[in-house]
Every structure is written in structure tokens, then in C-alpha cells.
Amino acid sequence: MTIILHHLQRSQSERIIWLCEELNIPYELKLYQRDKHTLLAPPEYKALHPSGTAPIIYDGPVKLAETDAITEYLLAKYAPTPNALVPAPSAPNFADYVFWRHFANGTLGPSTGRVMMFAFAQVDPANPAAKGVQARFELAAKMVDDRLGESKWLAGDEFSLADLMTVWNLTGLRQFNPFELTPYPNVVSWLERVGERPAYKRAMEKGDPGFKPLLGAEKPEAIKRG
């Protein structure tokens, strides 16, 4: 039975396409465009799962949402053991892998998202809460940059799921609240390496054909409504 991967275009569900491409997990891809006025998921996507948010997969009777849940499910059921994306618990870099893999959605993603939401709400950047949110994001981004200054990939010498889970937060998410990556040169070099991965190229071409991944340091153009 083939997994059906429901991809909301220009969203974090690109990570699940990429994961499947890296591990050669067969899947059927269904694409959904964002609502042109709200930029949110369209009604037909929201109807796929009670959460109504990307990503969503169907695997026979299983209907699963949440990036971390889907990732854990796919790795447990369909990935070869061992696989190249997850270091063995006995590996010397296993703790680094665990930290950075969870830092992506536990700290970096939420801090980037809060900055975005404050911008959407047009909160004055001088507001103490806005300043605190911005400082938290800058700390998280600097931690990633510092790590990549001492290591080729987040978990060590080899690409891992930690990298795959982190990329969206510093690329695609920037289209909703554009910012430069110039202060983070090690991140920019890392993204260049990411862009060279065949599985990443395939995932982006399949999931968002015609869209150029935001891998450069420059401030990207904001996604447009209407």
C-alpha cells in the first residue's frame, strides 16, 4: 500500500517529501495550493484531518498529522535499519543528533514563528514583548550558526534528520516574514550544501515546481496575497 502524502505547497510539509526522497520511501504526492487571500490551507486540505494543518499523510486506514509524528512513524515503519539519517545510540554524536533534531521544532521553529506572528499583528518592534521575541530568535539562529562553524552538519560530519528538520525554519518560513541570513554566514554555507543534495532537489521540484528554494542570504520577497 502506497503512502499518500498531502502537501500544502510552500509549507513545512516539504520536509516529509524530502524525508521520503532521502530514504527512498515510495509515496503518492497530492498537491494543494494555499488560499490566495488568507494564505492558509484551503477547505479541502483542512478536511483531511481534524488538525487541518500540514503535513498530513494517509497510509491505509492511518491518517496522521504533525511533522514529528509523521517522521517518527515513517522511520519506524518504512526506513531501513540502520539508516543514514539517524545515528545509532552507540555513535559518539548521538547526543548532538538528538539535541539538534529537537531544537528545530522545540526552539528554532517556535521562535521564528513568534517573530512572524508579531510582524503580522503589526506590533511595534520597540514593544518589550516584541524585543524579547526577536532576541530569542536571534539567540536560536546564532546557536545554529555557531554549531555550523564547528561542524559540517548539525549532528557532526554527516547529514542527518537534524539538518532536514531545521532547513524549513531558515528558508521557506522566511517568505512569510522576510529576513536576511547575512548575520549567519555558517548557516548560508550549510544551506548551499543542502541545495546540492539530489533528494532535496527532487523534493522541491516535486512539491513546489517552479519555486526557487530560499537558500541564499538575501532577504526574500514576501509571499503575496490575492
TrEMBL record:
Is Ion transport one of the keywords UniProt gives this record?
no
Q: Which domain of life is it from?
A: Eukaryota
GO cellular component terms attached to this protein's record: cytoplasm
Which residue ranges are recorded for the region named Disordered? 205-226
* GO MF term (any one): glutathione transferase activity
This entry's Enzyme Commission designation comes to: 2.5.1.18
> What keyword terms does UniProt attach to this protein?
Transferase
Q: In this protein, which residues make up the domain named GST N-terminal?
A: 1-82
Could you tell me which Gene3D superfamilies the record lists for this protein?
1.20.1050.10, Glutaredoxin
The UniProt entry's coiled-coil ranges are none
Q: Which reaction does it catalyse?
A: RX + glutathione = an S-substituted glutathione + a halide anion + H(+)
The question of whether Transferase is a record keyword is answered with yes
Q: Where is the GST C-terminal domain?
A: 60-214
Q: Which PANTHER family match?
A: GLUTATHIONE S-TRANSFERASE 1 (PTHR44051:SF9), GLUTATHIONE S-TRANSFERASE-RELATED (PTHR44051)
- Recorded family membership: Belongs to the GST superfamily.
Name of the protein described by the UniProt record:
glutathione transferase
